[in-house]
Specification:
about 190 residues; 4 helices; four-stranded antiparallel sheet; globular; alpha+beta
Length: about 190
């Protein structure tokens, strides 16, 4: 994947919401969802449903981070004070994050809850993520160990508290036509 400046970085995916959001659902707009990763928000009273799509489980985790960052006011990579042309200086040091093993839906929910915690307590959101281990990319299923993610990000001026938690209620990850689709509900 190309970074904002166009340089190729092996195994590292930028987490910038700019130009990645896909409006509508796969059923409503199959032309937009055909062969791309993406996310869409579905609003509901006191909750929001996040629909994700990607070719691999790692892509789903990246899209989940992108979608979460899109909720941050003046989200990163945009016009806000956090925006900076120097990617390396702005993104800080790499962090190692470990998610508990489980089925794909529970790992995805765990990832989103980790992002909620980091944004609220540590005032930090990811700008780049790289899946280290825990997913068999050939099978798109969870392997036997915990999922390890490396991430770089930015510190927020204020804690981000819009999202309370991601829930397992109705969470699902399924394979469809050579790609993965996921749905997770967030309490807001």
């Amino acid at each position: 994947m190309r970074t904002r400046r166009g340089a190729r970085r092996s195994g590292v995916q930028r987490v910038e919401p700019v130009g990645r959001r896909v409006e509508g659902t796969p059923g409503d707009r199959p032309d937009l969802w055909s062969n791309r990763s993406g996310y869409a928000w579905v609003d509901h009273t006191s909750e929001a449903t996040l629909r994700l799509r990607g070719p691999t489980f790692a892509a789903l985790l990246e899209e989940a981070a992108r979608a979460f960052v899109s909720l941050v006011p003046g989200h990163l990579g945009g016009d806000g004070p956090e925006a900076d042309d120097d990617d390396d200086a702005a993104s800080g040091a790499w962090r190692e994050l470990t998610l508990e093993e489980g089925d794909a839906a529970s790992v995805l929910v765990g990832w989103l809850n980790e992002l909620v915690y980091l944004a609220e307590v540590e005032r930090w959101v990811p700008t780049e993520v790289a899946l280290e281990a825990g997913v068999d990319e050939q099978e798109d299923v969870m392997s036997t160990g915990p999922v390890r993610v490396r991430a770089r990000g930015r510190t927020l001026e204020q804690p981000f508290v819009l999202v309370k938690a991601a829930t397992l209620h109705g969470a699902k990850v399924r394979s469809r036509s050579g790609h993965l689709e996921a749905e997770v509900t967030l309490d807001i």
